[in-house]
Amino acid sequence: WIKCTQPEGAPYYLHEEKRIITDLTESQQLLEMSDYLLDRARQLGLPFHLDAELVITEVPGPKGRRDFGYYFVDHRRRLLFWVDDYDLSEVFFNVKGVTARDHMKQAVITQYWMHVGLYPNRRELKVDDYEELRNILICAIADAATSQTPLAPFDLDSMIRMLDLVEKLEGMLNSASPMLFVRSIPQHVGSSSRFINFSGQPFARLDAGKSIYAPHHRLSSSGSSFLIRIIDLFLFQSASGHLEELKQMWVDQIVHYPSWQKYIAKLTSDWARFTIFSTVLLTTDVGLLAAPTLGGGGGGMTAAVASVYLSIFFSVASILTSIQLTNRVCGKEYSSATSTSVLLTRTSKSVFGTDSLAIMYSLPYAFLVWGIFLFVLGISLLVFSSTNHAMLASLAPLYFLLFVCSIWPSISGRGAYEVFEKSWWRRSLIGGKSVHATEV
């Protein structure tokens, strides 16, 4: 037995004569098991040439009992095989609808590259290996650079760094194990991505934001729920926007992590700005309460004063929710694709599903807008309480115009303006026809 060390530091053992790999230390028991498995392979006529290996490792057994598992590796064909019946659905990553044999083979190839990363033992890399990896990265970089919803499992900057690393390490053929380990990472993730996206199948996913399943088989419904439609009225239509973005990044219960990272970065940036705006609004509210026209802080509770107090409460709520949400998205739940998938799966099974996340992400913005609205309301009540009718008549049209312009972005940005526009053209008699815009 030869002790080897994976580049990350995990030890494993290699028996060169029998071509056995293991991370266990029961050498005699391992040899007995390997002899039995090799005999079975020969009886079945399965290949065990110089580029084949047997891996024996520990697996969890029933009731916590210690058990052993195995698989054979064929490096020539980049496949795994067994001498017993094996349920391949265990390596399907919970992907539904896997029926084609070549699609099942892609799942096995994914496990092969995971094996290479775990046990990069004394294998030589050829020039063709580097060329294959380089071509994979170049295609993925082109996809990420030219598409709004790329299928590439890494972000653009990471893939560019990987390509640069491959170029630098191409001549280091003397360090086969580290090179195999480096090569296995993008190969494993890329192979997993091809399997999940049904690459090579008639209904392959070509867009990260599109589902490949029929509507009645999808695990999540499209469109906004009744809860979102109701609460959107109070959140200034921001919840439906967040819900749509969440559905674009979590399609068929698969997280596209590069898009998720961009989304979280955008959220934290927005929440930081909302904190600044809310702080400014809070300072303005406090200053307004001290104004003599509002009693200098010692007057009675009028409608204007109540509005300003409510504006203060909403400003503080915006600051608090922004701080808490920023702290949460920086935590462990959002640190990797796996943890993010667990979070979204758990949330989708709750009472309100992913609607709860969309509403929660909307709170800092909604509280800030309500705070501004109440501040303006307090100022308006103060101004229009004047008995000077001439001044009121001159300010009212301007006030109404400003109010319409203020709510215009929210209305036009969520489709309500388009509905109004269609209705307007339907009633128009210009040429007796509707006007349609066609995007080219």
Describe the structure in your own words.
- With 440 residues, the chain is an alpha+beta fold.
- Among the domains are: 226-385, no CATH class; 387-440, no CATH class.
- Helix content is 56%, strand content 8%.
- It is built from 13 helices and 8 strands.
- The strands form 2 sheets. The protein has a 6-stranded mixed β-sheet with strand order 1-2-3-4-5-6. The protein has a two-stranded antiparallel ribbon with strand order 7-8.
- Strand 7 (250-251) and strand 8 (254-255) form a beta hairpin.
- Helix 9 packs antiparallel against helix 11.
- Mean pLDDT is 82; it is low at 422-440.
- Report the helical percentage: 55-70%
* Beta content: 5-15%
> How would you sum up the major sheet?
6 strands, mixed
H/E element sequence = EEEHEEEHHHHHHEEHHHHHH
**How are the strands of the biggest sheet laid out side by side?**
1-2-3-4-5-6
Instruction: Report mean pLDDT, rounded to a whole number.
Output: 82
* N- to C-terminal distance: 66 Å
Q: Helix count, per DSSP?
A: 13
Low-confidence stretches: 422-440
Radius of gyration: 31 Å
Total beta strand runs:
8
Q: What class do helices, strands and sheet pairing give?
A: alpha+beta
- Multimeric status of the protein: single chain
| Broad shape | elongated
Short summary of the structure?
By secondary structure, this protein is an alpha+beta fold.
Secondary-structure blueprint of this entry?
Elements: E1 2-5, E2 11-15, E3 20-22, H1 27-43, E4 52-60, E5 66-74, E6 79-81, H2 101-118, H3 127-146, H4 156-169, H5 176-196, H6 226-231, H7 238-249, E7 250-251, E8 254-255, H8 257-289, H9 303-329, H10 337-348, H11 355-384, H12 389-413, H13 416-427
Parallel strand pairs: 3-4
Antiparallel strand pairs: 1-2, 2-3, 4-5, 5-6, 7-8
Helix pairs in contact: 2-5, 3-4, 3-5, 7-11, 8-9, 8-11, 9-11
